[in-house]
Amino acid sequence: MAVRPRDKKVIVIMPAYNAEKTLVKCVADIPREWVDEIILTDDASQDRTVEIARQLGLHVLVHDKNRGYGANQKTCYTEALRRGADIVVMVHPDHQYDPTVIPQLIKPLLAEECDAVFGSRMLGGHPLEGGMPKWKYLANIFLTALENAVFYMYLTEYHSGLRAYSRRYLERINFHLNSDDFVFDSEIIAQGVIQGMRIREIPIQTRYFEEASQIGFWRSVVYGLSILKTLVKFKLHVKGIKRFKMFEPKEVSETSREEAVSGVGEPK
């Protein structure tokens, strides 16, 4: 078995909401010899997610109200950087993505061959056999093709939730200015593209089941329209027609850090 180099700190972040049914299985599948710490941010769940996470020995943060998937990631990344992470891996606690691939995900980052690595369900092959709805599969293909055309790059998928970022990536971009909703995942890629970040992909398998969190059709429509809006803003910024602060290099300040974690605390 390959041995992980110990000169870089690897932190897994888990943006959680009502994950009590899948959290234990998901954490059990994380290869702990490749991970130094696990941070779970709970977005005001209505179940026992926080209690279970604390029992598992995770570092737990809790939003005082539901703030959204993007806001959850902001808290996670801010805390991971504060705790000295060199590599940050996002794992959804609903167990839809297989965390056993974490070694393959972070090896290029440990070797400093790139700045981010994404798991791709398309590269993994047979996403429909894994349970992905056909309409979601077709929308994924369409949006990915459009994003490749706008970004002048080639990825097989932009919408996977299994990702790893280097500290350099997260420190160079204004992720605090991104949406609090699901389009955060596309905005953070657009920011990385503008800052010249190097992105790779690894194949992963699709896994859909009843307990896995999924957004419905109309919420997906809103998500798709939000991506189109992001692409327009990206193009306007790159062409110099209109500048957007979210695409500028990040200016690190204590104020931005405090704003990112306001309303967050340990459970009482």
Shape: globular
Q: What's the arrangement of strands in the largest beta sheet?
A: 7-5-6-4-1-2-3-8
CATH class: Alpha Beta
Gross CATH architecture:
Alpha-Beta Complex
Structure summary, number of beta strands: 8
Using only C-alpha atoms, the radius of gyration works out to 18 Å
Strand content: 5-15%
Order of helices and strands: EHEHEHEHEHHEHHEHHE
Give the total of domains: 1
Model regions low in confidence, pLDDT < 50 over at least 5 residues: 252-260
CATH superfamily: Spore Coat Polysaccharide Biosynthesis Protein SpsA, Chain A
Biggest sheet layout: 8 strands, mixed
Beginning-to-end CA distance, first to last residue: 41 Å
> What average pLDDT do the residues reach?
89
Helix fraction bin:
25-40%
If helices are DSSP runs of H or I spanning 4 or more residues, what is the number of helices? 10
According to CATH, the fold-level topology is: Spore Coat Polysaccharide Biosynthesis Protein SpsA, Chain A
Protein described:
This protein has helices spanning 23-28, 49-55, 69-82, 102-110, 121-124, 134-151, 167-172, 184-194, 217-238, 254-260; strands at 10-16, 37-42, 59-63, 87-90, 116-120, 163-166, 199-203, 264-265. The chain has 268 residues and is of the alpha/beta class. The protein has a single domain, classed as Spore Coat Polysaccharide Biosynthesis Protein SpsA, Chain A, CATH 3.90.550. Strands 7-5-6-4-1-2-3-8 form an 8-stranded mixed beta sheet, with helices on both faces. β1 (10-16), α1 (23-28) and β2 form a beta-alpha-beta unit. The longest helix is centred in the last third of the chain and has 22 residues, at 217-238. The model is unreliable at 252-260 (pLDDT under 50).
